[in-house]
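Components:
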Amino acid sequence: MRDRSIFSFSSKLVLFFILQLSISSLIIGMSGYFVAKKELNKKGEQILKNAVIQAIDLLYSEYEKVESGIMTKQGSQEIIKETLLGIKDPDTNLRDLHGKIDLGKHGYFIIYDPHGNEIMHPSLEGENILETIFVDQKNRDLLQDQITVGLNGGGYTYYSWWLPYSTKVSKKISYSDYFSPWKWIVVATTYEVDLNRAANIILFVIFLTMASLISIVSVIILKYVKFMTTPIVAIVDGMGKIASKEYIKIKKDKHKDEIGRLVDGYNNMVESLQNTKEHLAEREKYISYLAFHDDLTGLPNRHAIEHHVSDSINQGCTSAYMLQTDILGLKIINSTLGFKQGDRLLQFIGSYFLELNDERLFLSRTSSNEFTIWIESVEHDEMVELVYDLRKSVKEHISKNGFGRIVDMHLAVSEYPKNGISFGELYEKTSIAMKIAKDTNNLRLNEYDKKFKEAMENELSMRRYLRKAIEENEIHPHYQAQVDYRSGRIVGVEALARWNSNALGAVSPSIFIPAIESQNLVTEFSHYMMDKILSDYPRLKEKYNDEITVSINISPVFFMDKGFQEVLNIKLQKHSIPPNKLTIEITEDVFISDFEEVTKTINHLHNIGVRVSIDDFGTGYSSLNYLTMIDFDEMKIDKSFINKIIEEPRSLELFKIFCQIAEIYNYDVVAEGVETEMQLEMIKTTLPIVIQGHLYAKPEPL
Ligand code: C2E
Ligand code: MG
Ligand code: MG
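Structure:
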């Protein structure tokens, strides 16, 4: 609350002016009154003196009448008394007070003899004034003065006395003079109340005039002050509003002085504040845009989807899916064509997503090659269809823009509320599903499963135990038979690593092999496995037959290692195994790296007589061009084709095409993952092929 004085600035100003006016009016009025009073007193004194002179003139003319015998002394003296003080009431013995000479309302004449005897008095005639009982010593002195002044040639005396026939006391002036023939002291006396009556009237008139003047001037002042203070009050109010970011300009009216300049200054300030506010609002908008958008694609970012998902959950969303797509091929584009092209690819995907007008989807880019999509209001099957359609159309869009077929997506999804009830939980679960999709190179939609999390947790602890596992011989090869189905003869075995961890139990190679690669343990592990497998060979011959071949999986990293060829030579000699009984399995991934080096290594293997097999054929992304340039000995058609061979006619077709390619290039064919007689029947119709699958044998220890 603002601390406000009860009086506003303008009322204080008005009050100040009125006070000023009143004080000056009072001073003028009072001085006028006092001046007038003084003058009137002076005038009154003069009148008194004249009255006494006039009375003494009368006394002389009467005295002359008495002297000339026209009048008796008593008669003349009575005429004088009646002229000066009026007729005496015979009943009361009191005189009328007012004679023929005017001494004002209360003024009257007195005549004493030099001893203080009242020769003429309105009420005390015949008494001695100096001895009258109610006259005290102080008054007696005053009256004595009056007589003395009169005897000494005339003069004034000033004192306070009762008004005639009244108990009220007033200031009084007397003039006394001496009429020697009769030894009379003639005194004219009057009261200030009479003398000042005019001054009082003047005072009253002055105050009346001043009061009306003050009223009129107050109205003018009020209007003027209002005129002067209105802009100031408006500025004060405006200032108050600035605090709440309200910028209001005020009217200048007719002010051309400092107030006008103040208003101009204030308005300029408000305008610049307004501009600053708009500018800040734009910046704020931009900053919040940046905070919630991905710079490269213009799509909402992780922050934005987090908000959206939380809002949607808070608003009572009952079921939804969180989809993650991981762009495959971006790495290759970045490393072969440069980052600019990689960025272009992401922008194409972004622009495609931005133009999608599907209310069910909230699309965002959450990391460099990861897009996260919140899908609402769909049933499970509809979601699956939607996701595959989305991938198909994105791929078409990208390929139209010149990126060929190299780009694809891993897809992972988690479900709200089944897998998590917050953005964080769902994001974590989707990421786990995505990791599994990537590790297992699975291009189908990976739906989060509780087991994934366990596997992930296992993987984390597995990473800690992995080095120890190699050192402490916890990893062993198992062997899976490869069978010529026509003869039923086992022609070879594939060595597959098995880790039975003391701490973790059995860990799948699809989990620990990628971990070995990412932890730079490949060389160590490869040496270890090759030694184990090659040293097993004599026993494998014993178990199966003398002609048996053994296949070893070699990681692309080790295959490309400069020391690989030498290591292989040494190990073949060390374990004295015929090179043509050894098959090296490599995957198509190896062609992503240096093609020439790969060719050289393969040529070397052929030169020393080792067989080379291309594993998981059909799942890589490189062009099949390499087949025209490199000789292989064997093609292992990936189990994903056999898997679907019954339900999907295209899988069988592809399988047949692969077999034709193998025929053209004279490769042996191994079909991986044959589990059922039915699958076998389907593929039997084509070439003579070797079968590796649970139908005949599972990987087993030697
Ligand atoms: P791969 O080389 O393609 O091995 C074949 C995989 O198919 C093996 O999985 C095998 O158990 C599985 N398999 C064979 N027949 C069937 C079947 O009828 N049904 C099903 N469902 N699966 C079948 P495994 O042992 O889990 O190995 C997975 C992958 O791990 C291997 O795929 C290989 O790429 C890698 N790997 C295994 N051991 C080694 C190794 O010592 N070194 C390297 N670098 N990689 C290895
Ligand atoms: Mg293999
Ligand atoms: Mg395979």
